[in-house]
Design goal:
alpha/beta, 11 helices, 15% strand, globular, binds 4-methyl-5-hydroxyethylthiazole phosphate, binds magnesium ion
Length: 238
Amino acid sequence: MIEERLSAGNGFPALTIAYCRASLSPMKSLPDCRLYGIVDLGYVQPLHVAAMTAALVEGGVDLVQLRAKGRSTAEVIALGSLMHPLTLAAGVPLIINDHPQAAKEVGSEGVHVGQDDDAVARARAVVGPGCFVGKSTHSLAQAVAAQAEGADYIGFGPLYATGTKPDYTPIGLHDIAAVHAQVQVPVFCIGGVNSARMDEILAAGAKRVVVVSAFLLAQDVRAEVRALRSRLVAPVRA
Ligand code: TZP
Ligand code: MG
C-alpha cells in the first residue's frame, strides 16, 4: 500500500519526498511516540531494508531507526534514502544511528548517538535545528546527564542481556521508575524487549520501548509489531 502511494515519485527521490511531506500522513510528534523499531543491519541484509521498513511501519511502529554498524557514511546515506520515502509516507520519523552527516544528507527527522559518539550539541550542530537528537544511556546517572546535555529523547538499557548488544551488562528493571521521575524527555526502554516481557516492563514503569531482534527475527513482522503495539495503548506525555 505504501509502495502504491509512492509510485508517483519512483525514480525521483526529491520529488517523492516533497510529495510525501505535502500529501500523506502528518508526521508523528516525538512525545506521542511509544514504539520504536530499529532496522539493524546485523539482522537485515541491505537488499531487504526497504521491505523490513515497510513491514515495521505497516505493523504500527511510531519511530524507525537505521542502525548500520561498520558501514560507511555513503552506505548509510544510500540506505537511509531508501527508507525515508517509506517512513515519510506513514508520518513516521526516521532516525539515523551514529552518523549525523548521513542524517543531514538524508533529511531524516532524527539522529541517535551513543555514549562513545558525538556529544548531543556536536551532533545537533551538524544536523541543524529541525532534526531531533537521541542518546543511548545505560544507567540512571547517564540518563540524567543526557537530558542535561540536551538530548531530545533517551534510550535506557539494555534491560535484559541481548545478542544485539552483547558486550553490555543488563541494567534490569529496577531504575525504570526512577528514570521516569528524574527525566522529562521521552525515555525509551531497550534491550531484550519482546511481547512476553511487556507485562513486567510496563509494571516497572516503562512507557515507551525499542524493539530490535524480536521484530526483525519474527516470522510475521507486521503481526509481531501489531501485538506489541496493542500493549502500548493510551498516549502519554514524556
Ligand atoms: N542499545 C541498548 S540494547 C540495544 C541497543 C541498540 C539492542 C536492543 O536489541 P534487542 O534485539 O531488542 O535486544
Ligand atoms: Mg553509536
